[in-house]
Amino acid sequence: MKTSPFQPDQTSLAYSVGITLDRFIKLKQSDFPFASGELSQLLRDIVLAAKIVNRETNRAGLANIGGAFGQTNVQGEEQQKLDVIANIRFMRALSKGGEVCAIVSEEEDAVIDLQNNSGKYVVAIDPLDGSSNIDVNISIGTIFSIYRRKSPIGSPIQLKDIMQPGREQVAAGYVLYGSSTMLVYTTGCGVNGFTYENSLGEFFLSHPDIQAPKTGNIYSINEGLQLEWEKGIAAYIQSCKERKMQSRYIGSLVADFHRNLLKGGIYLYPATQKNPSGKLRLLYEANALAFIIEQAGGKASDGKQRILDVQPESLHQRTPLLIGSAQMVEEVEQSVVLHSSLVTV
């Protein structure tokens, strides 16, 4: 029997830094016998781009990369310089990796066909969520979804490869660039979180097997739009106040979602008079977070149905989003149904 070469008092001199993301991916590769390593490599490509974006966001106040770029994207939103930078970084990483045949990005009008007919995967991505918060040093993030293509390998991509409901995702995740940089992702076998160690340039497993609390004491919603909410949403928020729950709203989707995932709570961006179809995008925002929250034991709804069951009809389709602790999402769904059934005379 081989013994450790270190004496007991020596081990205390060097603490364990834990499992690296790369090692974790390799350990979990057997969960995907159909992937033959391609999905693992695709996740590594995303991580590489995230490290570069993390570097850029950390130096935003020193380099001239803050503020507006001077153009608007397909959403009609003013692009920030870092929106453009992040989009370029992820497009390069995904196109050069060789595993992806098509990309859907918030910053691109149309599907990016990489002309890689041997690629097995389609990626939908919001390269930099909440980028307008960079100038005031508030947490921002990257959100991504990964789907297996439906068309035969070797053939050109088809519409059915892109317009897949969220339940077809094989992986999804987000990167939170905040007081520390974290990657949280799922491949349908639970949710795990990794924290970036800058000095080593590695993500280490810091939050294994994340489970969302069944309920919580936090609600996150833009109360400035209260006069535009439907009655069911307004009634639910009023009940939150009566129960003396905590209102916490950063205005950066990834940051609000991450807090509620760990601590318990609900994030709401419902339909409003101005945006009757909601404001958040289905393919590269709502679906990814819905997949994550369900794998962690929570729920995600548009108020009427499960987000992951919504069939996409357009590339930049918007949706209402109620997401977080399961019991809280069920409560707001019940409130919406109750008040929509009331008849006023």
Structural commentary:
The chain has helices at 8-11, 21-28, 38-58, 81-97, 159-162, 231-242, 253-263, 282-295, 326-341, and strands at 68-72, 78-80, 100-105, 112-113, 121-129, 140-148, 169-177, 181-186, 191-197, 202-207, 218-220, 246-247, 266-269, 280-281, 299-301, 318-319, 321-324. By secondary structure, the chain is of the alpha+beta class. The protein has 2 domains: 21-207, 2-Layer Sandwich (Fructose-1,6-Bisphosphatase, Chain A, domain 1); 218-341, D-Maltodextrin-Binding Protein, domain 2, CATH 3.40.190.80. The strands form 4 sheets. Strands 4-3-5-6-7-8-9-10 form an 8-stranded mixed beta sheet, sandwiched between helices. It has a 5-stranded mixed beta sheet with strand order 12-11-13-17-15, sandwiched between helices. Helix 3 (38-58) runs antiparallel to helix 4 (81-97) and helix 6 (231-242) packs across helix 9 (326-341). The longest helix has 21 residues, at 38-58. The model has no long low-confidence stretch (mean pLDDT 89).
